Amino acid sequence: MTTGTGEALLRIDRLSLKRGRNTVLDEVSLSLGRGRSLGLLGESGAGKSTLAMAIIGLLREPEVGLSGSLVFDGTELTELSESRFQTLRGRRIGLIFQDAMGSLDPCFTVGSQICEPLRRHLKLDKRQALDRAAQLLDSVGIPDARARLSAYPHQLSGGMQQRVMIAIALACDPELLIADEPTSALDVTIQAQIMTLVMDRVRALGSSAVFVLHDLALAAQVCDEVAVMYGGQIVETGPSALLLGSPLHPYTQGLRACVVELDSHELEPLAGNVPDPGDMPPGCRFATRCPKAGPRCTQVRPPLVELEGRRVACWVAQGEPVGVAS
Amino acid sequence: MSATPASRGPASGAATRPVLPADAEACVHDAAALFSAPGSAAPPPSGALARAWRRIRRERSAVIGLCIVGAFALLALLAPLIATHDPTEQNLEHALMPPGAEHWLGTDSFGQDMYSRLLYGARLALGIGFASVGLGLAGGMVIGLVAGLVGGWVEWALMRLVDAILAFPEIILAIAFVAVLGLGIDKVIYALAISFVGPFARIVRSDVLQVKSRPFVEAAGLMGVPQTALIVRHLLPNVMPSLLVQAGIRISTAILLESGLSFFGIGVVPPTPDWGLMIAEGRAFITMAPWISGVPGIALAVLLVGLTLLGDGLRDAFSPRSEGR
Amino acid sequence: MFRSAAGKGLQTLLVLLIVSIASFWFLKLAPGDPVTLLLGSEYSPQAHARLTRELGLDQPVWTQYGLWLSRFVQGDWGKSFITRDDIFTQAVFQALPVTLALAALSLALALLVGVPAGVLAALRKGRWPDYFVSSLSVLGSAFPSFYLGIVLIWVFGVALGWFPTMGFVRPWEDLVGGLHHLALPAITLACYYTGLIAITTRASLIEVMNQPFIKAVRARGEPMSRVVGVHAMRNVLMPLVTVIGLQLGGLLRGAVMTEVVFAVPGLGSMITTAVLNREYGVVQAGIMLTALFFVLVNLLVDQLYTLLDPRLRRR
Asked: B-contacting residues of A 215-244, CB under 8 Å?
């Protein structure tokens, strides 16, 4: 692994993804340095998971229309051949899914599934792979690891299945780990354990991580940086403590208000819903639900601009006139 | 921000206590049904038939199947009107004639007109098919109802009987009954019907048990309202789709079995215009007069394909997944 | 697991018992007097009375059943009126192996053609290979096998002369000759199952490919050949075996029809000729044998499920 912490491991530049007529990702731009962690926040349908899938290449031409640039360690992923991409997946980029039970093949033992990337990417033979697999299970906190290798997924609890998923994703010491809502399907008591485990392992490897989350508090705790997505666009991105502490974009502000404080008795939900991908307005996509929006907001899309230590895409935040709301 | 989990109805088949129902809405509806006068019919779910038709229409295979079967049904119904000759009239001077002006599809070795025999054969095939499946359906419903409603050792005995029937492959059962009952159209219908009883009985019985365990039925029992009529009334709308799908699948089996038996000579007797018989008769002349086997053979193949498509289409139309489309 | 196996075994035994009662009753209901038929030309009132006593036919019905059953399980199935052959030998050692050979060959053919066809249709869903395979499959599964047999005999046997049109050579005596004679019947019989297997494989594969774990396997960097060939297909096995098991009745039906058309001396021919000759003893033996086999194979398929789907195994 090359050092040089100043260079971005992952650089996404104006990436757009179209499914049929719908623009699911709209000119997304992000960068992630080595050893850094990024949280993708937003409601369902904002495009977070789609972005995660696009990064690891499970969504490619011709099933979807891609434009823009996606660079991983200097390699342009959008132009990479499928066979070369396969050498990246599981080896240098690992992915953890939300649904651990569904993500494990029910007909194969846990051990054989962990060994798969080990034998394919690291070219280990059967015995070496099994040894390493037992080590991996142990490192993710599964007791009696050796015996567990011959267990089937349905024989494990939800928490253990997720640990297995983590073991598989980290099996080849990837430089980038993508975790798509890794704890959403778990009991609250286990969520903290799992997140701690993931962060420990990632930090131990010195890898970068992208977390798809909808929990602001979790993002604040775990991620160095945060990018808030809405309707397929990045609306605000920057260091997590700063951004979540004093958000500038009305949407981020609204998200924060939704989080129930322990000593407050009020829930302040955001009005409305994410519009359908088919009928997105031309301007800011949040304008229809935004309490501060003006006519300019619906017509002209605000660019992502450096402001107070983060980047935000909002006319109001930038102090631009938006006209009087009717 | 996360979606609320969809409310679910009462667990199927599980014994639920009447005290705290899982689905309030269903219970209100059920309670209303409970207090309606015994004589009045429970209001069926609005436009159930129309909904069913719409689902069928969406399945392309079902539509194609329906067209094919419909065409044959039409031919069968109109046979007496559109046939050109008496199907059993022999005319040895005109034997083995290829398709032509007088005999549109040629004649067989006895001089009988193939076109007319085709039409009447369709009549016979569809008639036997529907009759045997209908009889099997009726018998299965009776057995299923009795088994489900009475319960106890009666249910156990009846279900073991059904197991025994299902233990025999259909063709063996059909052959056995024909051997005992003798040949002829009616015997064939009975023979086939008996082998079809099994699946229908099982479906009806399991549905009876399911309805029986619903809270409002238990409540009715506690209050002294007769359960049987209530169960039967609520059973039919639920069970109709599955029965319909099964029936659709069975009709093609019935026709295939019937023509097969006739082909072997242990089904319908000559000179009845049966496609199986016709194929057998035409076998000897396959090289010099291929239409004798060909006309009934291809007709049978097309009808069976149509029935298969219809059966599969019905099954797909009524499967739980298609509801969301 | 022991308890469920024992329970299943008991239930199966019970079903077999009821099947045997039904078969016994079948013979009772059959027209004609078996004693008279057995005596044939040696008929006389005294002989009739004597044979009736010998066969125990003057006993109460349930005693007769008991006698019959005890004889049956010992392999004494009586003798054929016509050939004077031992029915047991004829059915189990002559006819059964033939039917098994035909069925096995057909199943092998059906799997060999049907599974790849289904996979192709699933992977090219919505495009012309899919329509092609799906249409052919529906046609194959619905086409009446006795008519198909006649057509194949005409085309390949008579017109082209590639295959013999009827008769049978035992494959275990002469492999090439046997296969040559079995080829057309096996192809005819295979059509039904091939269609069914292709349709099932296609539907299952489509459903399995939509499962989340397929994406997970791809995310590990496995090539599509392994994703489909190993992971997806392994999960398709279970529904496939289920359908094959469920449609065994159809296989047998096709086998009976095919045997008659091609004059293959299997169980199907044996039973149908016996019905035509009013040889009810033979018919009864055939019924019991096929039912027995049917029940056993279904039991085997049930056991196969637990082997195939780890979720069904009880530890």
From this structure: none
